[in-house]
Write a structure and sequence with these properties.
The structure holds 2 protein chains of 2 kinds.
Chain A: H1 15-19, E1 35-41, E2 47-53, H2 55-58, E3 63-68, H3 69-76, E4 100-101, E5 107-113, H4 116-123, E6 127-132, H5 139-142, E7 158-166, H6 169-172, E8 179-190, E9 199-205, E10 210-215, H7 220-231, E11 238-241, H8 257-269, E12 273-276, H9 279-285, E13 289-300, E14 306-318, H10 331-334, E15 345-354, H11 368-386, H12 390-397, E16 406-407, E17 413-414, H13 419-430, H14 432-444, E18 448-457, H15 465-471, E19 479-485, E20 491-495, H16 504-516, E21 523-527, H17 544-570, E22 578-581, E23 584-587, E24 590-596, H18 597-606, E25 619-624, E26 633-642, E27 649-659, H19 666-685, E28 716-720, H20 738-755, H21 769-794
Parallel strand pairs in A: 1-12, 10-11, 14-15, 20-21, 27-28
Antiparallel strand pairs in A: 1-5, 2-4, 2-6, 3-5, 7-15, 8-13, 9-10, 9-12, 13-14, 16-17, 18-26, 19-20, 19-25, 22-23, 23-24, 26-27
Helix pairs in contact in A: 11-20, 16-17, 17-18, 19-20
Chain B: E1 7-9, H1 14-23, E2 28-31, H2 37-42, E3 50-53, E4 63-66, E5 69-73, H3 78-83, H4 85-90, H5 92-99, H6 104-109, H7 112-118, H8 125-132, E6 135-139, E7 144-148, E8 153-155, E9 158-159, E10 166-172, E11 179-187, E12 194-205, E13 208-217, E14 224-225, H9 227-233, H10 240-247, H11 266-288
Parallel strand pairs in B: 1-3, 2-3
Antiparallel strand pairs in B: 4-5, 5-10, 6-7, 6-10, 8-9, 11-12, 12-13, 13-14
Helix pairs in contact in B: 9-10, 10-11
The chains are: A alpha+beta, B alpha+beta.
Chain lengths: 795, 289
């Protein structure tokens, strides 16, 4: 591939190896003496461990060792929390439970054997005597007196009690002209389902006493730091490698129990161990997402002016605090409640609640889809109440355009945006008036057709470290990048932000290529190995290009600056007359004086002639900490048709106009958008984690958990508006989560619009066929009853 | 997600396979396409000590017109049935149902014999074969017999097949002229198994229905004939009113045994069965015309 430019749809350089099966994932790692681990997990949601008998299992073929929670209690420590809200309850989270299990899947022991099959067989022979305790899975019910309690530290299971707001809701609703709409809004629990489940290989070298931990993670550097802290291991003795990571969606953003246990077991045994998570195991052992129960209110006036929004929320945390669990339903939720609207009064109150379920943490969008769903659903609900078109209500309340920061009700500053122009573009592509005419005609034929809008905004580009720290972050959220020019002029870039499918290698190489004028194939991208580069942060919160990419840009800028000085020296010119373009240095007005980037690189290493004071080499590292988040936004429009007979919802059209600032690689951004829309539609129509009251996961595999499949989708019609972000030099905003955030409310608004003439005003996700069918039956029943009542009045 | 230990045999003849089944009777399971058995083994819901893989035996995969009907080898895959011109022209509903089983990977592996032997309560093929009629040819090491399809499905995941028998062939009768067929399915969004599936084979002669065989899958423990629906159709001129009345009885045989799960309540399943019975009858009648 030649030299590329910013904005080209360069094909993903990762794809040939990934598509042809040459990617190297954790399970592809084979080491001499490798042994295999299976975790023994609790079949009960809540129970005391009375005893564990491992004698039979220990004698099973191939078994090397068995460890219970009690055996490793000292070495394992407790899993950390990375976001400390005021008054947060932090119950101890042992990687292996040794007194009490608190969810189905809580690990109590680990079996190490020569083969994975032997380990699995022997794990079935470990006899655990449980005293089963009452369990609770519903976050709202868990806070009531008399509900089973999980942790002595958290009375009524409340882990935190969080409020955020702006304006004065209570005062605002005193206005007699104000109308309030109110709904119970449930954002159902989702199961992330990355294509590759988790996996760990731990390799402790007893000679050097250092540990190499291969793990499928979004945050190798943070895993290294947290592992060291939790286990008391000197940090320089820990090397973490994230090889190919086959998807994550937030679910690999934590220090997990299995990572700690694998490391400690490898150290105990003095040999490498491997644990590969099965799909069914992933359903209970990897974090879940969402799971909110809220009462939402929106206040406004008959003329369409929205006065404010209020939400009382129960956020399910699961059985323990996962690393970022306190952040997701608080700041990443509450700070989004203004949407793209003036929204002068906002009141948000959140209980974080422990339940006997798999821990809940970030899942693509992480708090922002939940908030956007509340806002966008309630805008439609309000519009229906006052009998106005949802487009009219949105337009009336949208913020004015701004280019360089606008502080909104909640005190945060949106970076840039022209929300109305973006909506107008989407409506134009969609042809809104034509659709409404089509809908009227369809209704006359008895067909159910509906349109839904979602004009979302989200926080991305995590994060300005000082701001994050003031809100509770336990680590800096900058990103680092090293750009190392080799003596031949080839380039290696190491970024602290490593991919889990997004296409970082292409993006980084494209960025470096476009700025250095070096062909893409001359640039090697390294990531995910804490021994290959400087400390880094990771990939989450749609931050990689805006924070990680900007760090690369800074290092490239330093390289060019130094190379320019050297080129000027070598060409015997004043640096101020030396220009750098297209990979070559030239002296202004002297056409025959020029040097290629490669020639200058060679000179930097030969060091035969350097300017006074200049060190040899061409190798720069940068740490970029942004001053603000970035705030992508957009307008999505969905059309559904509902089958009267069965309630089945068909998504028949989808228009998305997003504004993610400048776009480095449009093809990659479109790809992420498509996947994101699919995930958002999945939440709206098919996906739901379902527990029994005693904590058994009924939707425990892909046979019962309905992942969205390609046959659900029409061709997505996508376009963009461009409001460059003033927060970083590249002008980019996050693009990895927009689709997920936008799609669920757009689709649900469409479903409800399709049924609105029957009197349906709200429905919780997912809009399964049965739920929609029942809504139709109930609405028709209500209409019949109303007609009968009218007749009675008439007679 | 690893199976427990088992011994694996891949015989190359039916004699060898049936001998193994006799020798390890009760312990051995037959492996055909594997798309039902292997997942159950990986979840350790099934832990057979011995697997007899009949995939290496030649001559079990065919579609042949004979005796006025069609014989289908037990190892014929869904994909082969979906694309077979003989099946497409003789039993359009079987081709159609085969094309709607799960996904392409499953259709390339899963077999008609495996589907019948497994008798998943939501499998498509059992209902389709039940509606067509015919018999299942099975053999042991020493003997063979034909089991009428009406007596083949016994209960949940249970058939009349004995544990030393292998299905070798499915014999389908020729359909009378003026016969139309259809299969209408509402699939579960995750597994794509039928929440309900209704197969209809209807013969129209002189404007009246002379024979109707209607079978339902997904709604109860096993694929079941909807005999009350059939009785309503038989001997009648098929009008929309007759279809409505017949369809409304489609789940009657299943009665209180209607399945209920996180995807569909019993009430909704019953409703869907009626709706899809209506669709299947309507399409079959149209095709008969």
């Amino acid at each position: 591939m030649p030299v590329t430019t910013f904005g080209d749809s360069v094909r993903r350089t990762e794809d040939p190896r990934l598509i042809t099966g040459r990617g190297k994932y954790v399970d592809d790692i084979r080491l001499p003496g490798l042994s295999h681990m299976t975790f023994v997990r609790s079949p009960y949601a809540h129970a005391n461990i009375k005893s564990i008998d491992t004698t039979v299992a220990a004698n099973a073929p191939g078994v090397i060792a068995i460890f219970t929670g009690a055996d490793l209690q000292e070495q394992l420590g407790g899993l950390p929390v990375g976001w400390l809200l005021p008054d947060l309850k932090q119950p101890k989270h042992p990687p292996l439970a040794f007194e009490t299990v608190r969810y189905v899947g809580d690990a109590v022991a680990v079996v190490v054997a020569d083969t994975p099959y032997q380990a699995a067989d022997a794990a079935e022979l470990v006899e655990v005597d449980y005293e089963v305790l009452p369990a609770i899975v519903n976050a709202e019910k868990a806070t009531k007196d008399g509900a089973p309690e999980l942790h002595a530290e958290a009375p009524n299971n409340i882990g935190f009690d969080f409020s955020v707001g702006g304006g004065d809701w209570d005062e605002a609703i005193k206005d007699p002209d104000v109308i309030i709409v109110k709904e119970e809004i449930i954002n159902q629990r989702l199961i992330p389902n990355s294509m590759e489940a988790r996996g760990v290989v731990a390799d402790f070298d007893p000679g050097r006493e250092n540990l190499t931990l291969y793990t499928s993670t979004q945050i190798p550097h943070l895993v290294k730091m947290l592992y060291a802290m939790v286990t008391g291991t000197p940090e320089q003795k820990v090397r973490v490698i994230a090889p190919e990571v086959g998807g994550a969606f937030g679910s690999k953003l934590y220090l997990y129990a299995e990572e700690v246990v694998c490391g400690i077991v490898s150290k105990q045994l003095g040999r490498p161990v491997k644990w590969i998570e099965g799909r069914s195991e992933a359903y209970i052992a990897t974090t879940h997402g969402r799971d909110h129960i809220g009462i939402a209110e929106m206040a406004g006036k008959k003329n369409g002016e929205i006065v404010g929004i209020k939400i009382e929320l129960y956020a399910n945390l699961g059985a323990y605090l996962s690393t970022f669990a306190p952040l997701i339903p608080t700041y990443f939720f509450g700070l989004m409640l203004g949407g793209v609207y003036k929204m002068p009064n906002i009141s948000c109150h959140v209980y974080g609640v422990f339940t006997n379920t798999t821990p809940v943490d970030a899942y693509r969008g992480a708090g922002r889809p939940e908030a956007t769903y509340v806002v966008e659903r309630m805008v439609d609900r309000f519009a229906a109440e006052i009998g106005r078109d949802p487009v009219v209500v949105r337009r009336k309340n949208m913020l004015a355009s701004h280019k360089n920061g606008r502080e909104v009700t909640l005190g945060v500053t949106y970076d840039s945006g022209d929300y109305k122009a973006n909506l107008n573009k989407a409506l134009e592509i969609f042809d809104y008036p034509a659709f409404r005419a089509e809908q009227r005609a369809a209704r006359r034929e008895g067909k159910l057709l509906g349109v839904g809008l979602s004009t979302y905004i989200e926080i991305s580009g995590a994060a300005p470290s000082a701001v994050a720290s003031s809100l509770g972050a336990g680590a800096g959220l900058w990103e680092s990048a090293a750009v190392r020019v080799h003596p031949t002029g080839k380039v290696t870039v190491y970024s602290g932000s490593s991919p889990s499918g997004q296409g970082h290698e292409t993006a980084w190489a494209q960025l470096a290529s476009s700025e250095l004028g070096v062909p893409m194939e001359d640039i090697e991208i390294l990531h995910g190995d804490t021994d290959q580069g400087q400390f880094g942060t990771g990939t989450f919160g749609s931050r990689s290009v805006s924070v990680g990419g900007t760090a690369i840009h800074h290092s490239v800028t330093k390289i060019i600056k130094k190379a320019t000085l050297l080129a000027a020296h070598l060409m015997e010119s004043d640096p101020k007359f030396v220009t750098f373009e297209g990979g070559s240095f030239a002296v202004e007005d002297i056409p025959d004086k020029s040097m290629t980037f490669q020639e200058v690189a060679g000179a930097a290493y030969s060091a035969a002639s350097l300017p006074p004071g200049m060190e040899p080499g061409l190798d720069e590292t940068s740490f970029f900490d942004p001053t603000n988040f970035t705030w992508p936004y957009g307008s999505h429009i969905a059309v559904v048709e509902i089958d009267q007979d069965t309630g089945k919802v068909d998504l028949i059209r989808y228009v998305a106009v997003d504004d993610v600032g400048n776009v480095l690689n449009p093809m990659i951004v479109d790809g992420m958008l498509h996947g994101g829309i699919a995930q958002g539609v999945g939440q709206a129509l098919t996906e739901a984690a379902v527990y029994t009251d005693d904590g058994q996961l009924l939707s425990g595999s892909m046979m019962d958990y309905a992942m969205p499949t390609a046959d659900l989708f029409p061709k997505f019609e996508t376009d963009r508006t461009v409001s460059p972000s003033p927060v970083n030099e590249l002008g980019v905003k996050g693009a990895g989560e927009t689709g997920t955030i936008a799609a669920s409310p757009a689709v649900m608004n469409a479903v409800i619009d399709a049924l609105s003439h029957l009197g349906v005003r709200h429905m919780n996700m997912p809009a399964t066929s049965e739920k929609v069918w029942r809504a139709i039956q109930d609405a028709k029943e209500a209409q019949r009853a109303a007609r009968a009542a009218a007749r009675n009045r008439g007679s | 997600m690893v199976t427990s230990n088992f011994d694996y045999f891949a015989p190359s003849t039916l004699d060898e396979a049936t001998s193994l089944l006799s020798k390890y009777r009760g312990e051995a399971k037959v492996l055909a396409g594997g798309h039902s058995l292997i997942p159950m083994m990986k979840l350790r819901l099934a832990e057979p000590g011995i697997l007899v893989d009949i995939g290496q035996i030649e001559g079990l995969s065919y579609v042949r017109e004979e005796d006025g009907g069609v014989s289908i080898g037990s190892m014929t895959t869904y994909r082969e049935m979906a694309t077979s011109s003989v099946i497409q022209s003789n039993y359009p509903l079987l081709a159609d149902a085969s094309s709607k089983v799960a996904d392409l990977q499953v259709r390339n592996r899963g077999t008609i014999g495996g589907s019948l032997a497994h008798s998943d309560p939501a499998g498509d093929i059992p209902a389709v074969i039940l509606a067509i009629g015919g018999s299942v040819v099975v053999r042991t090491r020493r003997s063979s017999r034909e089991i009428n399809i009406d007596r083949f499905q016994v209960d949940l995941l249970t058939t009349a097949l004995r544990d030393n028998e292998i299905i070798t062939e499915i014999k389908l009768p020729g359909l009378a002229s003026g016969t139309g067929t259809a299969y209408s399915k509402f699939h579960q969004p995750a597994s794509h198994y039928a929440i309900t599936g209704v197969a209809a084979v209807i013969t129209i002669s002189g404007g009246t229905c002379t024979d109707a065989r209607i079978a339902v899958t997904g709604a109860g423990d096993k694929a079941t004939r909807a005999r009350r629906t059939e009785r309503i159709l038989n001997g009648k001129e098929i009008t929309p009113a007759v279809i409505r009345r017949a369809a409304s009885r489609a789940a009657a045989e299943i009665g209180d045994a209607l399945n209920e799960d996180i995807h569909a309540s019993a009430e909704y399943r019953e409703h869907l069965t009626q709706v899809h019975a209506g669709y299947a009858i309507e399409q079959a009648v149209a095709a008969a015309g």
